[in-house]
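Structure in, sequence out. Go:
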């Protein structure tokens, strides 16, 4: 075996998978057909649950230094409608605005720092798999070679060769629109108003958000006075090379066609174009081969792809590592498809709905958007749509003998008191499973101590504890929770079942219960 895990594709998903594998003690090889990192951004940042997950890995502050905005979203587009979260006490959506090339640069540095082997200019040509390994034919700068891996992860984008070679169907549809998107410096002649609108000489006031014409849609936004986010969406039958860079002239011409006038633009920070597709792989696993990110799903609205793709990687990594280390329960790898395909289906549902809302230009479509906008004045539907965008609207369907309502949810970042103040995020930086005893329960600790090499055990207190104890997986999903004052027999029995379900057979005999916290 040349490597335990071969990751194909050094985009954000592949690099995130590599960093998570390294945290779990597996040093993967990553092969990328492009000889050098791309400088053409395909996305302008992260939105959703992946942002707090980065905090749980100690990466958010590092990444935020390179972003134009980091924090709760004051608003967000949904199907051609501008959502306004400012009336809410807390925004349901978190943003990290960072161009994709910079994101890839930071993830690559982190993966390399942890020991991953990134090989650029290496293209997968073919692979075969048996019950034990995957043998891959690769063309590199020095010629052809073979590499044998225990597992193969296809993170190679919407045109995934790994998916095609594995024979996994990728049903869906392609929309006729092309969107050109850019972050540019705010021109000196343009004034950002307090309302978020723009005062443009010769054009008057252009509304922030979406402006529709019979030729397409213009979108304008600015989170800081110095930077303008602008996009133009129009029908365009031209077939573009996906690797060809977008020029400022191309963006400016598209805006002129849609708006019917010239819009002043400052110096470009980054520019990109993308087609809209709605597709999902029928399965995310074929024996030893797995799909993640755009190789597994393509969404027809912005904001979902990186959020879902990077969380795919976080979900998959610890399960692959468990299999590599030899302690994975029998069907642990199958849970990757069950959990993430469901999440992808949910994201496809909401992004298809956005596409349907956004595409129409006739009076009926306008009426539908206006009515939808009225509904979002109320707090409950606004929170619901925000959670839908963030990917936090549905629980992961995890089996839990205790049937606690927290099971399958993202672990809250509780402020904890131990020997010193800390948080759940601080305890999860190493990417290990965590048993958090919040009620000083020696019975629960004694049960968890049977998995010492696999589960970290911490005792702490917190205000208004949500449960007596939480078992948190490396992907920050709560796998089990003890009800407040739950009896010992039911708490320890259900905990033992959950530990075995996710982390294999115990490695130590039952410990004697003591009254001293660990």
């Amino acid at each position: 075996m040349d490597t335990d895990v071969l990751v194909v594709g050094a985009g954000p998903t592949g690099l995130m998978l590599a960093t998570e594998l390294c945290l779990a003690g597996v040093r993967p090889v990553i092969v990328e057909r492009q000889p050098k990192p791309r400088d053409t951004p395909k996305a302008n940042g992260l939105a959703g649950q992946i942002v707090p997950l980065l905090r749980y890995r100690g990466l958010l502050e590092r990444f935020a230094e390179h972003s134009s905005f980091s924090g709760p979203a004051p608003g967000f587009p949904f199907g051609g409608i501008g959502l306004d979260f400012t009336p809410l006490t807390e925004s349901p959506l978190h943003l990290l605005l960072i161009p994709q090339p910079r994101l890839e640069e930071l993830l690559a540095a982190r993966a390399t720092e942890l020991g991953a082997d990134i090989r650029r200019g290496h293209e997968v040509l073919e692979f075969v798999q048996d019950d034990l390994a995957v043998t891959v034919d690769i063309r590199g700068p020095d010629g052809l070679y073979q590499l044998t891996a225990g597992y193969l992860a296809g993170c190679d984008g919407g045109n995934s060769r790994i998916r095609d070679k594995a024979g996994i169907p990728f049903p869906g549809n392609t929309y006729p629109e092309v969107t050109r998107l850019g972050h540019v410096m705010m021109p000196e002649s343009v004034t950002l108003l307090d309302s978020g609108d723009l005062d443009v000489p010769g054009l008057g006031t252009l509304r922030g958000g979406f402006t529709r014409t019979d030729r397409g849609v213009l979108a304008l936004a600015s989170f800081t006075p110095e930077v303008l986010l602008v996009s133009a969406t129009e029908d365009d039958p031209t077939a573009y090379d996906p690797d060809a860079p977008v020029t400022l002239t191309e963006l400016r011409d598209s805006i002129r066609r849609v708006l019917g006038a010239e819009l002043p633009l400052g110096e470009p920070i980054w520019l990109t174009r993308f087609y809209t597709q709605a597709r999902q792989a029928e399965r995310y696993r074929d024996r030893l081969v797995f799909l993640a990110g755009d190789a597994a799903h393509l969404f027809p609205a912005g904001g979902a792809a990186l959020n879902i793709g990077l969380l795919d990687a976080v979900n998959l990594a610890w399960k692959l590592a468990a299999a590599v280390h030899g302690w994975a329960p029998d069907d642990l790898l199958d849970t990757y498809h069950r959990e993430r395909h469901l999440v992808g289906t949910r994201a496809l549902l909401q992004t298809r709905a956005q596409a349907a809302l956004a595409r129409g230009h006739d009076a009926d479509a306008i009426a539908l958007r206006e009515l939808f906008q009225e509904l979002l004045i109320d707090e409950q539907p606004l929170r619901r749509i925000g959670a839908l965008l963030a990917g936090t609207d549905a629980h992961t369907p995890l089996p839990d003998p205790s049937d606690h309502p927290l099971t399958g949810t993202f672990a809250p970042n509780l402020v904890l008191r131990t020997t010193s103040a800390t948080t759940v995020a601080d305890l999860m930086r190493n990417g290990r499973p965590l048993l958090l005893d919040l009620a000083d329960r020696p019975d629960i600790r004694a049960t968890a101590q049977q998995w010492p090499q696999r589960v970290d055990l911490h005792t702490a207190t917190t205000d208004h504890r949500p449960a007596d104890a939480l078992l948190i997986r490396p992907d920050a999903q709560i796998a089990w929770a003890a009800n407040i004052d739950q009896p010992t027999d039911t708490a320890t029995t259900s905990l033992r079942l959950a530990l075995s379900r996710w982390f294999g057979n115990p490695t130590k005999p039952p410990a004697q219960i003591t009254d001293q916290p660990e």
